[in-house]
Amino acid sequence: MSDDFRELVTRGIPDHLPPMPPEAPGISHAPRRRQVLSGAQRELALTNALRYVPEGLHAELAPELARELATDGRIYMRRFRPHYPMHARPIDEYPARCQQAAAVMLMITNNLDPAVAQHPYELITYGGNGAVFQNWAQYLRTMQYLSRMTQEQTLVMYSGHPLGLFPSHPEAPRVVVTNGMVVPNYSSQDDYERMNALGVTSYGQMTAGSYMYIGPQGIVHGTAITLLNAGRRYLGCSDEGGGLAGKLLVTSGLGGMSGAQAKASVIAGCIGVVAEINPDAVKKRHEQGWVQEVERDLDRVLQRIERARREKQPLSLAYQGNVVHLWERLAREGLTVDMGSDQTSLHNPFAGGYYPAGLTLEQSNQMLSRDPDGFREQVHASLRRQVAAINALAGRGMAFWDYGNAFLLQASRAGAEVMRPDGGFRYPSYVEDIMGPMCFDHGFGPFRWVCTSCDPLDLETTDGIAAQVLEQLSSSSPPETRQQMLDNLRWIRAAGSHRMVVGSQARILYSDCEGRTRIALAFNQAIRDGRIHAPVVLGRDHHDVSGTDSPFRETADIRDGSMFCADMAVHNVIGDGFRGATWVSLHNGGGVGWGEVTNGGFGMVLDGSEAVDRRIQQMIHWDVNNGIARRSWAGNASARFTLERAMAAEPRLEATLPHAAGAELVRGALAGVYGGE
Known about the structure:
Layout: H1 3-11, H2 39-50, H3 58-72, H4 99-111, E1 124-126, E2 130-131, H5 136-148, E3 153-158, E4 161-167, E5 175-179, H6 189-198, H7 217-234, E6 248-252, H8 260-268, E7 271-276, H9 279-287, E8 293-295, H10 298-311, E9 315-320, H11 323-333, E10 339-340, H12 361-370, H13 372-394, E11 399-400, H14 407-413, H15 430-438, E12 445-451, H16 456-474, H17 479-494, E13 506-511, H18 513-529, E14 536-540, E15 548-549, H19 567-577, E16 583-588, E17 598-606, H20 610-633, H21 637-649, H22 663-674
Parallel strand pairs: 3-5, 5-16, 6-7, 6-10, 7-9, 8-9, 10-11
Antiparallel strand pairs: 1-2, 3-4, 12-13, 12-14, 14-17, 15-17, 16-17
């Protein structure tokens, strides 16, 4: 164990200016943000940053931070980035007075690991702007607080800012996190950029600001499930008929969460061609084994697709270039594309989330800060070109879906032809057709865990335990969920062989309420027995049954008019907090953008105690069934089926069930009052 690391963590913000930290080679940096502050607001931003450090350092530090603001459009306080290596360590290497605090420190350092994070030196984990903190002083102060925390305290986090340790009790959450929570009328993209530049709010994405990111593995299982079920639904594929062998998926993005697409394509058995303009992202995913091959020439891309088709071998191929050029070439050549999607960071289209055709990566990064209006026009023109090519291929039979990155939303705002005559989108969200009815309505969602020993053998043990639980459940699962159960069992049996670990020893597994509960209880027992050698952190993506209200993604299949309401996500965080979560988080923004979604999550530390057994049972039951009840009330038949089963299994659960009103009766009653209006 490094005494220097422990001492530096407990020291917090130093009382002298440390030397500038060295920069490792190959680090991907966030693009410069556009200058959005007035003169008076720049003064406020600098004043806000300086309040983290002793007054005696202000005269020397102020010019440096002013230059950061002028150069980056933000103040990251780069001088305070730690000199020690940033990565998850075994839990007993963190200086802490309670294990729960040490577990949170492990998760934070994993989110900022250069092997994990997209722009680690700017504290951005994924999605172009999904931040853990706004500046490095916040990181240092937070880690110091966690090193001091007892089980009688709770750390309060405001958009990366550690407000402080407050008295609480052992059953309370150790940390409560909010990110980007603003008065609703001030939640436009311009509001975000201004407040973020001022240093008063942050875009936490989903698992970035909640310390629950586990690298692209965090979405690879869901992506694999989406591809398998897209093949079944759109292409008529069956496991008996060879599944997705020889089928072509075209998409984009190898950055943070989008980096899962290449690996998921191979796991699902298809040919996945993923465009990515950033050579650093391509290099990282290729070196990590997430993408098998890289091509920079479109002629060679087309040749490789045809060979993979003939051989019917799974393939992940990165095209290092602009996705618009790929789509246009495929449309022009008349090549058959079976499935298509997009995972550019279009929640952040004008600040590095989308790079338009016609500009290099470097030209875009310069233009987005120097000529933001011109860059916006370039993005809109590029989206119109991309959609035109997609429409041409869809007209020949390609199944295309929005992958929850605001692609259709931003394309519509650009004037691209993505609308139906009735005002809806011409392509579905993957939640509408696949993830909603097949997974969320039945309680299946992205359960995950992290072994705090950092020992691969512990992760292997948890994989085996989870597989045993799913084997038992699948033997008695009803027809409505049997296919999902078998897909998940196949996933966990093969998870270790897919080499998905980046950073912490973590695993993702879609599971329903009973599965999550039984797996967690089995883990806790294994810790108690010594088969697992350190605590396990449970969590999930916010992209889940109950965790997110997002009308263009997670709640896209809610059709009673409440798709724009955020009661579910807010209640979920509150309920998790008083049912046993170690930490909870609530965010504005995530996936589809600031002001477009409210989402929340949790972390729970399993330590082998009987008290944790109780927490597991009461918290997970709420965390899943809150969303099931809401989806049932909205009229989703599969959710009602799941809710009725849950009420039969737990007599204390009494949820309101809807009485269906006949469409003809409703129309007739309205016609009698309103006439022919």
